[in-house]
Amino acid sequence: MSIYKQHIMRVAAVLALTAASTSAFAQSADYRRGYEDGYAAAREERGPGPGQDRGGLRIEEANYGVRGMTCNARRSVRDQVERNNGRVVANDQLCGDSAPGKVKRLQVTYRCDDSEAMRVVARQGDTLRLSCRR
After folding, report:
1. Strand-pair category, 87-89 with 69-72
2. First to last CA, the chain
3. Which of 13, 28, 121, 122 lies 20 to 30 Å from 66, alpha-carbon distance?
4. Residue span of the signal peptide, if any (predicted)?
5. How far is CA 116 from CA 32, 39, 57, 60, 126, in A?
């Protein structure tokens, strides 16, 4: 094999390793975010804490993405509800772009005090208004 071909093979190997490490880093960041969301959810199950409830409203589940490729947006939705007077914008800032190039949906299940759980859905770019007012 010529020196030129050996050099190309080495460059290709370095590029392949770089791509693999970037993918592993992205997966580990997603894993950390999921771990933190799970930890926060477990704390919520123990009872209300500071900033958890907004007039009795509790986010039980929030998923953002497309079928088979969703991410847990519960913490981000809860934060937006608290900051924006109950409004939540369905976009990639909730928990990342789980399906690049596809229109995603945000599905939120929430409960007001001891009422029956309610489920709302918004397309990417739309705004939800979550409220316990009747």
Report:
1. unpaired
2. 77
3. 28
4. 1-26
5. 32, 25, 12, 11, 25
Distance of CA 104 to the CA centre of its chain: 12
8 — pLDDT class (breaks 50, 70, 90): confident
What's the whole-number average pLDDT of the chain? Answer: 81
70: confidence class by pLDDT, cuts 50, 70, 90: very high
Same domain (yes/no): 81, 95: yes
Predicted TM-score (pTM) of the model is 0.60
> 98 and 35 in one domain?
no
* Continuous H helices in 46-123: 74-83
Identify the domain containing residue 79 by its residue range: 48-129
What's the pLDDT band for 124 if we cut at 50, 70, 90? very high
**Domains contained in the chain, number:** 2
Amino acid at 106: L
At residue 49, does pLDDT exceed 50? Answer: no
Q: What are 3's two structure tokens?
A: 């020196």
As beta bridge partners, residue 112 has 57
How far is residue 58 from each of residues 70, 97, 132, measured CA to CA in Å? 21, 25, 10
